[in-house]
Amino acid sequence: MTTRRRDLLILLGLFVVLVVFTILGPAQTEDDTEGRTPTTRSSAPGGALALLRWAQALGYDAQRLEYTDFTIDSSTDALVILNPSRNINRTASLEVLTWVEQGGTLILIDNRSQLFGALNQLIDALELEIVPYEGSDGETEIASAVVLQPVFQAPPLELVPVNTGRVIETERPDVAHLVGNADATVLMGMQRGEGYIYVGSAIYPFTNEGLRDEQSAALVLNLLNTLPEGARILFDEYHHGFFEPPSLRGIILSSAWGWAMLYTLAVLALYLILTGRRFGQPVPLLEEVALRSSAEYVESMADLFQRGNKRQFIAHHYYTRFKRRLARPFGINPNGDDETFIAELGHQRTIDTATLRMLLQRLKRGAASEEELLNTITTADSFQARR
Question: Residue 197: is its pLDDT beyond 70?
Answer without folding.
Answer: yes
